[in-house]
TrEMBL record:
Organism, as annotated: Streptomyces naganishii JCM 4654
Spans traversing the lipid bilayer: 58-78, 98-117, 129-152, 172-193
Protein name: Integral membrane regulator
InterPro entries: Pr6Pr-like (IPR049713)
Keyword Transmembrane: yes
Length: 216
């Protein structure tokens, strides 16, 4: 039930932004893309757990947690990006609520699900590098999108630190390299925590019943 609620929360925030702002603009935001993946992973994981089927591959579930986490860190620690919908004053209450869900509530829910509802020792160090392929692809997409849009167009670059028109490609690629190293360190940290944390699933499945020898 928890996973379904968390999935519905992420999906509701994405849907709200899609309705408020141009869907094509909203879909270009990394946090939105990460939350779409998270909602799908949580929904499928909930269904598999309910039907007692094998869980999703750990590399996929770990990637979903990793992507919403780095999206949250970028939002909270780096210079503010443009409004996801491109019109921050259209529906301020709905937009602020959706932004809070995408960048704070959903990542927190994903981390809690990973820590409390999944078995440990399923992530491996070899997964860390492939997880970076998605942010790398997003970097290429963001720079290509900026080149294709007309100069001076508002929100040509969705994140200020990726604004090649203002900072130049050398500066932007330097920022991207530092972020990539930070993201890799975070991925390694997730793997280390996964191997160090206790197993909440094993504890939860204890029934308290004991087998007794047959009578007679």
């Amino acid at each position: 039930m928890y996973r379904l609620l968390a999935a519905a929360l992420s999906a509701a925030a994405v849907t709200a932004d899609m309705i408020i702002g141009p869907a094509a603009r909203v879909a270009c935001d990394f946090a939105v893309q990460a939350n779409i993946l998270l909602a799908l992973v949580l929904a499928v994981s909930a269904r598999r757990a309910w039907s007692a089927r094998r869980p999703l591959p750990s590399g996929l579930t770990g990637a979903a947690v990793f992507y919403v986490t780095i999206a949250a860190l970028v939002h909270h620690l780096l210079p503010a990006a443009a409004s996801i919908t491109g019109a921050p004053d259209t529906h301020p209450l709905w937009q602020s609520t959706a932004a809070h869900i995408l960048h704070t509530a959903a990542p927190a829910a994903a981390l809690l699900d990973w820590l409390l509802l999944t078995a440990p020792d399923r992530l491996h160090l070899r997964m860390a590098a492939p997880w970076l392929l998605c942010p790398l692809a997003y970097l290429a997409f963001s720079l290509t999108r900026g080149e294709l849009l007309a100069p001076g167009m508002p929100e040509r670059y969705l994140y200020p630190f990726l604004d090649a028109a203002q900072h130049g490609y050398k500066h932007v690629l330097g920022n991207a390299l530092l972020l990539g190293l930070t993201f890799y360190a975070l991925a390694v940290l997730l793997v280390a925590v996964d191997h160090a944390r206790p197993n909440p699933v094993r504890r939860r499945t204890k029934t308290g019943f004991r087998l007794r020898p047959p009578v007679g």
